[in-house]
Design goal:
The chain is mainly alpha-helical and 61 residues long. Helices cover 62% and strands 0% of the residues. It contains two helices and no strands. It is elongated and about 30 Å long. The two termini are 23 Å apart.
């Protein structure tokens, strides 16, 4: 159950970040479209790594 919720959180993070990147209008990113499945999957894997390595199950007292 915990692993599923972490995967879900990572997916939502990736979706949010992916949308932010697509709407980023900085000069470095202008004209660049992030719409490939590979780029999204790489972002998702990164989010999943962050979520799974972040201590959320047992917060320190």
């Amino acid at each position: 159950m915990v692993e599923n919720s972490k995967a879900f959180v990572a997916l939502k993070m990736a979706e949010f970040l992916f949308q932010q990147i697509q709407h980023d209008d900085t000069s470095a990113n202008r004209g660049r479209v992030y719409r490939t499945k590979d780029e999204f999957f790489a972002l998702y894997k990164e989010c999943l790594h962050v979520v799974s390595t972040t201590e959320t199950d047992h917060p320190s007292k």
